[in-house]
Here is the input.
Amino acid sequence: MSKPHLVLTDVHRHYGQGDKMVRVLEAANLTVESGEMVALVAPSGAGKSTLLHLSGLLESPQGGEIEIIGIKTSKLGDRGRTQLRRSTVGYVYQFHHLLPEFTALENVSIPQLIAGQSQAAADKRSMELLDLLGVAPRASHRPAELSGGEQQRIAIARAAANHPKVILADEPTGNLDPETSDLVFEALGNLIKNEGAAALIATHNHDLARRADRIVTLRSGLVISHTL
Ligand code: ADP
Here is the structure.
């Protein structure tokens, strides 16, 4: 069997020092398989963003190991981490952060062009993703001409553009009304299954979390399974 796309082993992360030290993760363990959608539900301040940043190689832990597609990241230097992140991780934020002067299609194609794809191949892939997410008719629109749900679906397409093995989403529907959240979450779920990515999605929304394959929470610096 192929290796899980994302494995955290005894990950430790604290901020600050001495009596100001905040221990966020003590011994966090988590495995996310290809095509699996894991919802991360925990109160504000529990460490959700920290866990996502660590998983996305945006920060380093003080202890433990983070493996992406079987590659141990603790021994990698900054360059190696950046390369691995660019080639394997897609990130979706609460706010879409689309480039306002470019169309939906261009926003999804740009990361592919940066990665060395031809314009034709990038645009073809972008259209497939926009289609999968139900926003193909909006391909030539700029972000300001799109609804919040459309903007977020395009941000999801952009995150998936370079075939990431791991998709990380920090409150991807936190800014949307319930009906639109539903639509966007469903689109994200379809994409994860279709692409065979491993996904970790932080959300406050319990109804949406129930639609994931598995729910985890954070308690006393540990990742534990959770049922709502
Ligand atoms: P969540 O995403 O669940 O709201 P975070 O991961 O953002 O939680 O934060 C977890 C804890 O770590 C909080 O107590 C927060 O104040 C602290 N924290 C996060 N980032 C930093 C930082 N750069 N410096 C100091 N403390 C931080």
About this structure: The domain at 6-225 is CATH 3.40.50.300 (Rossmann fold). The beta strands are 6-15, 22-32, 37-40, 63-68, 71-72, 89-92, 166-170, 198-202, 214-219, 222-225. The radius of gyration is 17 Å.
